[in-house]
């Protein structure tokens, strides 16, 4: 059995990947969202030649070959494209072996606790607190993540005083028993991050995500040394060697690889194992309701150092609407893994028919 064809169905936001074998079996995956139509071009031009004709069950071998063969292009788009291949191959393998992906990984079918992840900085503290308390009632959430600072803001808040106002306002609204997490999105210098971190500790914040610009790992390590609130990060990082350096340097208390940014499940499992060996929990990044949250659900059900929550976006993103069925939903604060082989879902055919189509195949 070998890989016969690779198809992509892409929009600017999402690219679905379908791999077919020479015997007709198929698997569905997805590249990382955002500028996904560009990733589709990279996939067909640079990645597909290394995948066609290969044994589809040799997922680790295929992934490594793609990354190593394209060593002149070490970075985001190659890894995003490889992630589309990897996730389609896991779906294919599950269907061939009659198992869900989490079963292939040695996991168990169990509901996963979710935290409601806010993506907004344009919202007032009062409005944010109101909608989070409402979600506690309607969906049973007992954990949330909010945005502080400003994306690569270098100590400049979204507006003056917002961070200092939103943390206590939300904490009061959701109560002391709920978990409150914050994300600074690379917003601070070390000195300011430490100052803000001390404030976060007074409100029992569960983690302080990406306090400093993510390439400056020494800055983040400095912040971690000075604070008791756990430091989380890693979503942007796609080099396994860099991951090893960060873990060896004890840069963070919680690792957050993004399955689609990093290059798929196989590479994410390696990061999770490195972290596990160092006694560090792994809570993968999943900041939208495309298939990345589905992939993350299966991985969290399988790794021994899984963090306590699945990240679950609370935002209305039309570009993910009706993408696959059954859709994921939060009930009583938990998300169930879809029943079925592979990823356990079917991509909406109407969505596929509207997307830009391309195929690369063996002659």
UniProtKB/TrEMBL annotation:
PANTHER family: ENOLASE SUPERFAMILY, MANDELATE RACEMASE, MITOCHONDRIAL ENOLASE SUPERFAMILY MEMBER 1. Residues 125-230 form the Mandelate racemase/muconate lactonizing enzyme C-terminal domain. One of its GO terms (molecular function) is hydro-lyase activity. GO terms for biological process: amino acid catabolic process; carbohydrate catabolic process. The lineage of its organism: Bacteria, Bacillati, Bacillota, Bacilli, Bacillales. Keywords: Magnesium, Metal-binding. CDD domains: MR_like (cd03316). It holds the Pfam family MR_MLE_N. Its cofactor is Mg(2+). InterPro entries: Enolase-like_C_sf, Enolase-like_N, Enolase_C-like, Mandel_Rmase/mucon_lact_enz_CS, Mandelate_racemase_C, Mandelate_racemase_N_dom, RHMD-like. It comes from the Bacteria. The keyword Magnesium applies. This is Mandelate racemase/muconate lactonizing enzyme family protein.
């Amino acid at each position: 059995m070998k890989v016969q064809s690779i198809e992509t169905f892409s929009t600017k936001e999402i690219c679905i990947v379908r791999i077919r074998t020479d015997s007709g079996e198929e698997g569905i995956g997805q590249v990382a969202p955002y500028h996904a139509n560009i990733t589709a071009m990279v996939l067909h031009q640079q990645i597909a030649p290394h995948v066609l004709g290969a044994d589809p069950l040799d997922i680790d071998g295929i992934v490594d070959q793609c990354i190593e063969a394209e060593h002149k292009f070490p970075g985001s788009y190659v890894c995003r494209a490889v992630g589309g291949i990897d996730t389609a191959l896991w779906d294919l393998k599950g269907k061939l072996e009659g198992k869900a992906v989490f079963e292939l990984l040695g996991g168990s079918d169990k509901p996963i606790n979710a935290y409601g992840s806010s993506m907004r900085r344009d919202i007032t503290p009062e409005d944010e607190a109101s909608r989070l308390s409402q979600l506690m009632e309607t969906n049973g959430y007992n954990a949330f993540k909010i945005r502080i600072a400003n994306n690569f803001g270098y100590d400049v808040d979204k507006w003056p005083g917002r961070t200092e106002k939103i943390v206590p306002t939300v904490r009061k609204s959701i109560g002391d028993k709920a978990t409150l997490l914050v994300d600074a999105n690379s917003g601070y210098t070390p000195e300011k991050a430490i100052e803000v971190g001390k404030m976060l500790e007074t409100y029992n914040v569960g983690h302080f995500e990406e306090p400093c610009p993510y390439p400056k790992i020494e800055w983040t390590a400095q912040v971690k040394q000075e604070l008791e609130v756990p430091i989380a990060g890693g979503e942007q990082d796609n080099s396994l060697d860099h991951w090893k350096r960060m873990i060896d340097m004890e840069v963070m208390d919680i690792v957050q690889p993004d399955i689609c940014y990093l290059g798929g499940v196989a590479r994410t499992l390696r990061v999770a194992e490195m972290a596990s060996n160092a006694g560090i929990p792994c809570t993968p990044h999943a900041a939208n309701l495309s298939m990345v949250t589905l992939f993350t659900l299966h991985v969290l059900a399988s790794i021994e150092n899984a963090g306590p929550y699945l990240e679950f976006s609370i935002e209305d993103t039309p570009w993910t609407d009706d993408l696959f069925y059954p859709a994921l939903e939060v009930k009583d604060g938990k998300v169930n893994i879809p029943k079925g082989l592979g990823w356990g879902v079917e991509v909406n055919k109407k969505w596929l028919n509207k997307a830009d189509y391309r195929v690369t195949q063996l002659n």
